[in-house]
């Protein structure tokens, strides 16, 4: 992968996160950390772009020195629709979170599945996608990325559980017969035989209702992942740890999803280090003491 090269040659490469609202995005913190760590002359800022104004903003980006961007709520679907080229991941997930320009044309991908699967592989080495079914709770935008990542990794059966059954059924239709829908009431029974549980709902997030699910039917060696990362250890992850399951937190996904964009824009593949993690943890803890909840979700 090479750095995007359509910025005016005199200007430093700039990227940004586009959202509405965008003030609470942690992407500037992550990319700013890497720019300093690698001594790169570049910039990453926030751009509040109203729904409906994305196309105009995109068109003006190259001449403003932008080599690319992250997109967050509510722009991820619209960005995919406006792109000249989209990766297979973005098309399958139905949303894009990473943009770069090639010869002035907007190219997009979705790095959420990459972020989740990379963090899972690092945190739970030995977990093998082919071993057993995985259960995914939720059928929103993040669930689409997780289901895509799991299927790509070779999971034979994804059990999908969502409060609104029709939304899970729609997701299953898009992803094919390896995704099997169970009702919300069946969620605990559906855990039997699974070696991975992933919460992609907002339940358990600071300020949201708790996620109610007993883990008794889950195999002892199973991995429990929560993509909610405020609090860092959600009640689900705490219960999993107490029961001897391997917990996988949501922060690692957030950090790893940022890697491919940074490499595209600034030409260096950055490392997700303990120092970066500590910096973002400090920010989350400071936000929690102010009473702030999770940031802007799917890319944050
Ligand atoms: N770690 C990361 O990098 C990362 C990345 C992406 C997202 N996230 C987090 O993942 C979460 C979901 O994001 P999203 O973009 O997928 O949101 P979304 O599209 O709004 O989906 C929300 C999901 O939560 C479910 N839900 C909400 N309230 C519920 C309740 N009271 N009972 C049961 N289910 C409920 C919804 O079910 P219904 O369909 O029934 O409404 C839906 O499945 C957010 O907390 C977000 O911050 C983290």
Descriptive account of the structure:
The protein is α/β, with parallel strands linked by helices and 300 residues long. The chain is built from 11 helices and 12 strands. It has a 6-stranded mixed beta sheet, with helices on both faces. It has a 6-stranded parallel beta sheet with strand order 9-8-7-10-11-12, sandwiched between helices. β8, α7 and β9 form a beta-alpha-beta unit. α5 crosses α9. The chain starts with 13 loop residues before the first strand and ends in an 11-residue tail after the last helix. The relative contact order is 0.16. The structure holds NADP nicotinamide-adenine-dinucleotide phosphate. NADP nicotinamide-adenine-dinucleotide phosphate binds next to α5, α6 and α9.
Q: What's a quick, concise take on this entry?
A:
The protein is of the alpha/beta class. Helix content is 35%, strand content 18%.
**What's the structural domain tally?**
2
Mean pLDDT over the full residue set:
94
Beta-strand residue fraction: 15-25%
- What's the CATH C level of the largest domain? Alpha Beta
List the helices and strands and how they pair.
Elements: E1 14-19, H1 27-37, E2 43-48, H2 54-60, E3 66-71, H3 76-82, E4 85-86, H4 88-93, E5 98-102, E6 105-109, H5 112-123, E7 134-137, H6 141-153, E8 158-161, H7 165-175, E9 179-182, E10 196-199, E11 223-226, H8 235-242, E12 246-248, H9 251-257, H10 259-266, H11 274-289
Parallel strand pairs: 1-2, 1-3, 4-6, 7-8, 7-10, 8-9, 10-11, 11-12
Antiparallel strand pairs: 3-5, 5-6
Helix pairs in contact: 5-6, 5-9
